[in-house]
Amino acid sequence: MPTLNWIGKDAVINHHNQVPFRLLKCRADLSVGDPESGNLLVQGDNLEALKALLPYYAGQVKCIYIDPPYNTGNEGWVYNDNVNSPEMREWLGKVVGGEAEDLSRHDKWLSMMYPRLTLLQKFLRRDGVILVSIDDFEAAYLKAVMDEIFGRQNFIAQLVWEKGRKNDARLFSVGHEYMLVYANSLEYLRGQGTLWREPKPGAKEIWDEYLRLRKKHGDDNESIEKALRDWYKSLPDKHPSKALSRYKHIDQNGPWRDRDISWPGGNGPRYDVIHPDTKQPCKVPERGWGFASPEEMQRQIRFGLVVFREDHTKPPFRKTHLRPVSEEIDEADIDDNEDTDDVVGLQVMPSVIYKQSQVSVKLLRKIMGEKVFENPKDHEVLIRLFRYITGPEDIILDSFGGSGTTAHSALQLNAEDKSNRRFVLIEMDKNIAKTITAERLKRVSEGYSFKDSKGQQKE
To answer: Is it the case that residue 161 has pLDDT exceeding 80?
Structure first.
């Protein structure tokens, strides 16, 4: 595999080994929230901070998200995007030597990123994932470097975040940026049967209504089912839950809908499936059974995921739950011949995300009372990604903390899901860390009201 070379690479390729381990000092006067939460904000150079954190978090982090300098030359803050701040110039001079002054912008940026990405890889769990935001100017170089550090075979996707059209553009409106997504081991993820899915629009509202009805009616599934159908009828025609109203049946696993049990595309297996009442073989679907073997069919029957008709003259049908149980997912409804988005209340996330950038700017201004940061990331986009990739007890790491969007996203996701995701943030600039990052987390933790997906306030 070809590798990317630049002036200074030889000096930085193993520089992470030369960075000394340092002790972190707790600032109780700047701390907020539960000291036992496991959440952490570290102020300091992110290379030194990563090395200090490594003994505690090596191989423990499920998701890393970073939004490093884009190297555009347009930022004015101390960790600026032309990688020309006094701190970075001093660091490059020490590491690269006298030729540092001759480095191009790409050389400087790559020399800064390489040892940091190398250390970040060491934090990931075996099933860990890293996402890196970037724009057109360095995207190709970044991918080449990440191929080298994380392995080209572990590349998952290059997401496109479309943030809005710029009407002042002369040729094309470049309103997007990217997120490069790499696994620590894609082979391991596949071996574990990892399947990422997110709720379809309207699915959460159905689930919330089901939980409310379950609390009201207890184990009376018949009453819950009747009330849920009435709820569907009461919704406006354009309500997103209306499109999922086929999930109108109820069992111990929640709302479910019936689904054909035959083999997609035809030529499926044919074997006897005995009706529990008539004791006769059920009619085999024209396309064959949807399960590859009699053993798998019996497994699905034992789990209550197959519903028999009144007698054996018609094939049974399958249950598909709004929130599939593990047996449904293990059976894997991923097939080129069928639109899986139509059969469950979950969907695969697309590689293009549409979200106006001004939303995050207005939110941060609302939290802080004034404009304090030029280009904060959108916490709703990060919440969506963290919910998609991580579990309720996972650790999320961000070594370019900035305005604290990653931490805000983790806190809000915990509030919405009643989960316990932990975050570790690093911010180099002392003033930003104290007056923006820490202050935002303080306000979010001590009073800023969260909003759930229905717009209702959550304290």
So the answer is: yes
